[in-house]
Amino acid sequence: MTTDTFTQFSLTEFQKDLSSSDQRKLLRWADCELYTALVRNAAGHEEPVVIQIDEKSRYAASTSADTLHNLLASAKLEEGSEAVIKPLPLAELARNAHLYGVGLHIVDDGEGDYIAGRTTLVLGMKAVVETPENKEVLYEAEIFFFKPTNDVHMLPYGSVQYWYDANPKHTYTSDESQAASIYVFDDQLDWSNPLFPDLPEGAMPLSTLSPSAQAFFERTRLPLLQRWNDAPAEPIEPELLYHNSLIGEPLLSFSQLRAMVDQDIVPAANDIILKVAKTVQLEGEPADASERWEVKVSFTTPIGIKALFDLDWVQASLCQANTELPNTIGTHSASEALRERIVNHLAWVFLQRGRSFDVARFGECLDGLFPDQVINSDKAYQPDYTDRRFPCLARFQCGEYPVPVMLLGQQGGNYVCQPLKDVDIPEKHAPTSIPGRSSFIDMTRQTMMLSNIGERLVLPTSLIDFPEAWYEGIRLSNQNLKSKFVSSMRVNTFLSELEQADGATSSSAKWLIAGCVAVVIGVIAMMNL
Hints:
By secondary structure, the chain is of the alpha+beta class. The protein has helices spanning about 10-20, 25, 65-70, 90-100, 120-125, 210-220, 250-265, 315-320, 335-355, 470, 480-500, 505-525; strands at about 35-40, 45-50, 50-55, 55-60, 80-90, 105-110, 110-115, 125-130, 135-145, 145, 160-165, 180-185, 205, 275-280, 290-300, 305-310, 310-315, 330-335, 390-400, 400-410, 415-420, 425, 440, 445-450, 455-460, 465, 475.
């Protein structure tokens, strides 16, 4: 055959830009096409050939088709499969290599080079796009993977993306302002479908963006070259479908998510650590003030990730009054009933975050696990860990504003609730039946303010309902949620190690470093658990 060479790609010039560490220079090669080695199986599905050199997995690409034919001449393929050589953009190869955690081996005129890590991240997941303000911004895209309900109601891969400014020159002392992060969604889809997840506030329709931004969106949502399986090789299926009498019908989608949390996230009860310490008395606090404890939950997941959750402050007497909780300061293990509650609590948080794209931090996702005061009740919330109805995701329908809440328990005709998002609701929509309604109203702004941080309130059961679409609708895939949980916990572990280290590093520097780690981990964990 005749050798066909893409003259626009030069490995020598590419290596010069690579050594310069200038991401914008590197991105000028993103649209260059290279011949790629693939295998087509008997069903017609094509996947890149993965070769091993120096124990590193990599895709094979070249400016010459003959080079790849020679490479595959002696390769043993599965019966019914055949080798295929076809041109693909470098950006497409890099994106797949990055997401699947492999490298890319490029051969040009007898010379070769191996790229991976940061380089495939830049070429595959970044682009310079023009903003509505006519500025050029180097954005990095995070793509969401969805779990479909069925073949009729589903969201294509990449229908919603999160873009953030990836310019490494931005620092807290830099005069150059950082572009705002944005969510972008395909507005040709019917987002009024109740089975679709809620779009993030301020999400931008794709059709309103610049041509360069639209091209970046379309590039990053192309189907992956390899199969993306939401389930592991051995699917995690629940032994029994989860049933909650408050909701009614058994929940298949939630049951599968809960099974994943039970198997991959939460270890045995004896391996769940509760560290209880007495809090320092605040300045000006009465000497006879109730004793408070700091309770910190941690464990190592069955997949080997250390999970550290945010501190919780609990009134000591409330903790001592609950037979499932520690009654002294020190280090304790969880009871079986508490472990069961942790599994359910995490699974419900995962479900809600999978429908709201709120996946930045998981350190606070056990908020509401322990006893607490209720802001509009004289009676404290004391969880009954044997009551299988709680916790439970539900909807507080406040006029035109549906507010997701976690039901934690019940006090008479009221549910003890924890709001799962910050929301300001016009005062006229706030039901008059809410106990202590005036304590939530900001009279200056004429709004009812609800917070998702450390807030417990009681709401009449008549104001709570359980929309079916919230439980069986489209959401982020179980694998996607697990990856984001792992990323968040790695950052928590990093921060914890910084806190324990010598105080030579300033607080602001610590958060700057942590922010960088969060960005890096949040991207690479997607496919590479």
